[in-house]
Design goal:
alpha+beta; 11 strands; extended; binds zinc ion
Length: about 325
Amino acid sequence: MCGDWKLLVNEDDAYDWKQETIIRILRNPLYKGYFWVQKCDKKHFKQRGRGYIPMQERTVIPSSHEAIVDEHTWDTVQEILDRHTKVKPCSSGYDNKFRGILKCADCGSSLMIHTDGRNPDRPLLERTYYQCRIYRVKGTRACSQHRISAADLERIVLADIQYHAGKVIKNREKFMRRVLGQMDTAAEYSQKNLHKKMDELEKKRKESDSRFIRLYEDYARQLVSEQQFRMLSAHFEQEKNGYTEEIEKLKAMADNLEDSACKAEQLANEMAGCAEIKELTTAIVNRLIEKIEVSEPQTIDGEKVQNIRIFYRFVGEIN
Ligand SMILES: [Zn+2]
């Protein structure tokens, strides 16, 4: 603790929390069962103030107390806070469900929301659209419009979620295999295969070691010359290093695969929870989606085509 605190507010105002208070609570790892090792650092006794360490630079370690919020929810909240988007509602009254996640496929900047006020009789969803921020600010010399209506975007995203959620419900294993296949090149191996291969290599490494010991014994009994000994021991050394390197590589692959499987599992759980949805909400978008890339519409064979890439949390794009 950095000092004693006294609550000098009257009881009626005690829960009249400001935004900073809520953010401080949301950022505190205490709620997910961790704590900050050190919050402030006085480098010198003459230093004025408390010397707070920025949150990102603090060391966090697991604690033995029970978590109030599960780790996954806590991480989701951090991601949303990190987007640094204003939480002010749109003046038009439209509930912007894609705050901070829409990106221009060409310049990478975010897409800005805009509502056309000219025809107030038209439904709000149809009058609301998104455009590349760089285009809005700098014009055509910097980027193009990348315009998409909120109605189209909501329809596409909802359909994509419903499609994948349906796949999870129908055949979860198949969904997992598909997602893993896209995430990792190591996914072509199963965890079992990797371990089998590692065991084989370990056996070869041991054999190489015992052959070296036999060689050394022969050398000690002067059955081989020093020159032969040097040459062969260099060969065994090289062989052993090769096996060790290969084993390390497979170990990293196995860890990676386990991590990817865990992530795919998390997405499958979230997806399964969205199987029945009929309408898109901000909470669903935040739970499932990390980023949506919007391309400039093109006309192909007289038809307007616009490429939308949806990157899901944990796993990325699902094709
Ligand atoms: Zn752009």
